[in-house]
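As noted in the main text, all predictions were made from sequence alone. Below is one such record, for Prolactin.
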Amino acid sequence: MAHRETNGSKLFITVLCMVAACGAVPISDLLDRASQRSDTLHSLSTTLTQDLNNHIPPVGWMMMPRPSTCHTSSLQTPNDKEQALQLSESDLLSLARSLLQAWQDPLVVLSNSANSLVHPSQSSISNKIRELQEHSKSLGDGLDILSGKMGPEAQAISSLPYRGSNDIGEDSISKLTNFHFLLSCFRRDSHKIDSFLKVLRCRAAKLQPEMC
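Prediction:
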């Protein structure tokens, strides 16, 4: 399974590189492929979060950090679709790339932590986290190509360093709780990324705002 995903990711980037170099495929088609990838990323992170929900004990929910403490919360992003529609294409792509890049290190923390997670589906969770890493990298590479075609403003990235510990907990409950929190932050950001790319795809396809 993981091998097929890796090959799919490599093919995704290879196709993007080829079409970007020769200009054979319009930006609208490239955005469509990127949007499909981001949709997969968000769906997978949502499934993972749901897998964990039923195994967080009451004390875990009580000690769960607030969403406002996610390491990407300082980035000013649209609160809804209406606000997103007011932003330029370059700003939307810059925001999506900034959020995606901010998760390179935290995804490594999640991947390493999944190996010692006390959960009946630990093996499945570990495999899905690796899939998240693969999808995230391939999407990031694809958005880099798109930003090169959209100009300097789209290439701007806001730095959002992860300052959390590589050790997410000393006991099974704290590990599970902090793992869930970090994954929930990623799910929230993957939803934003997916939303921004869908707005860009709609604009490139010249669809009316209400259809986005």
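The chain has one domain: 26-57+93-211. Residues 26-57+93-211 form a domain with the Growth Hormone; Chain: A; fold (CATH 1.20.1250.10). These features were considered when defining construct boundaries for the mutagenesis experiments described in Section 2.9.
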